[in-house]
UniProtKB/TrEMBL annotation:
Keywords: ATP-binding, Ligase, Nucleotide-binding
CDD domains in the record: LplA (cd16443)
GO BP: protein lipoylation
UniProt pathway: Protein modification; protein lipoylation via exogenous pathway; protein N(6)-(lipoyl)lysine from lipoate: step 1/2; Protein modification; protein lipoylation via exogenous pathway; protein N(6)-(lipoyl)lysine from lipoate: step 2/2
Upper taxonomic lineage: Bacteria, Bacillati, Bacillota, Bacilli, Lactobacillales
Keyword Repressor annotated: no
Catalytic activity of the protein: L-lysyl-[lipoyl-carrier protein] + (R)-lipoate + ATP = N(6)-[(R)-lipoyl]-L-lysyl-[lipoyl-carrier protein] + AMP + diphosphate + H(+)
Protein name: lipoate--protein ligase
Molecular function GO terms recorded: ATP binding; lipoate-protein ligase activity
PROSITE patterns the record matches: BPL_LPL_CATALYTIC (PS51733)
BPL/LPL catalytic domain: residues covered: 31-206
């Protein structure tokens, strides 16, 4: 394993738009063979999943008033808030993709590092979370391209919880499905669980400890490291200018169709926003926080123009590989969700 140094001109980069775009460059373009790792800290930002609706997940007015960035990542998953109380880690794996979708493998080294700090109740749990005493301190996400994938997560070390709970507007159905009354009730920071001798640690201190523990060294200087070059940064800048830094990518378009249905399944939330004209689906958008290597837009395309009836919707969905392009949700379940409206 080797570290990929994401500093620029010897200075750390805190711009979330830049940092969140790195995985796409690293797995698509740079393509360094083996197991790399990036680790960084962001300025305040809301990070949403690739197929989420920003207008439903985020308090946009509050976000803009407080100069919080909105950043859409290239992988699936849900919305999270970042500030300088967070540490973000991401494994960049090229060649051996056997670990893709294995969140236990991604989270175990982090949990081991916390155990060695005396936080024995840290664990990997559920689909893609890490928790202490049942409270989530990390959500993980993955994205795969060919023979490479990126897999990592956000570690809430000393997050401003008040801002997080205000700027995020999670789907109520998701909270109810988990028996949770609010965002605050289900999250925690790592710092309160640290032994007394480590309570003065900053996020940077914690990041440095984590890196040394993950690589089994005493000093950061002893970690095998690839340093991003000027050529690398030129390519990253071009991707930002053309896609990842644009409002079209990060905000997307709020369809604002007449009908909205949403349900939290055991493996994630699916939402449909659609119009019905003359008893046929005229327009439809699908939003989700699943991790998929397929194309959910194929499901949308299959439903446009279909009669708004259970039989017709089921027939249309049966022509699409739902598991490949969404996740392990059945045609019957999606049909029932769509038929809630009329």
């Amino acid at each position: 394993m080797f570290l990929i140094d994401t500093s620029r001109n010897g200075q750390p980069v805190y711009n979330a738009l830049v940092n969140q775009s790195l995985d796409a460059y690293l797995i698509n373009d740079l393509h360094l063979e083996g197991h790399g790792l990036i680790c960084y800290i962001n300025d305040p930002a809301v990070i949403i999943g690739r197929y989420q609706n920003a207008y439903a997940e985020v308090n946009l007015n509050y976000m803009k008033e407080h100069q919080i960035q909105l950043v859409r990542r290239t992988s699936g998953g849900g919305a999270v808030y970042h500030d300088q109380g967070n540490v973000i880690f991401e494994n960049i794996v090229v060649g051996d993709t056997s670990g893709f979708r294995d969140f236990q493998r991604v989270g175990a080294p982090i949990v081991d590092a916390l155990h060695d700090l005396g936080i024995k109740d840290a664990e990997v749990r559920g689909r893609n979370d890490m928790a202490i005493n049942g409270k989530k301190f990390s959500g993980m996400a993955m994205v795969k391209k060919g023979d490479a994938y990126a897999a990592g997560g956000t570690l809430m070390f000393d997050l401003n919880g008040e801002v997080a709970s205000t700027v995020l507007t999670p789907d109520i159905g998701k909270l109810e499905a988990k028996g949770i009354k609010s965002v605050d009730a289900r999250i925690t920071n790592i710092k309160p669980y640290l032994p007394a001798q480590y309570q003065s640690w900053t996020s940077e201190d914690f990041k440095n400890y984590l890196l040394c523990h993950l690589f089994g060294v005493e000093r950061l200087a002893d970690i095998p490291t690839y340093h991003l070059t000027d050529q690398d940064w030129a390519a990253i800048d071009a991707r930002l200018d053309n896609l990842y830094g644009t409002d079209e990518w990060n905000y997307g378009h709020n369809p604002g169709f007449s009908h909205y249905v949403s349900h939290h399944f055991p493996i994630g939330t699916v939402s449909f926003n659609f119009n019905v004209e003359n008893r046929h689906i005229s327009e439809i958008r699908l939003f989700d926080d699943f991790f998929t290597t397929g194309d959910p837009h194929l499901i949308e395309a299959a439903l446009v123009g279909v009669e708004y009836s259970a039989e017709a919707i089921k027939a249309a969905l049966s022509k699409v590989d739902i598991e490949q392009n969404l996740s392990a949700v059945s045609v019957d379940e999606l049909t029932a969700l769509l038929m809630r409206v009329l």
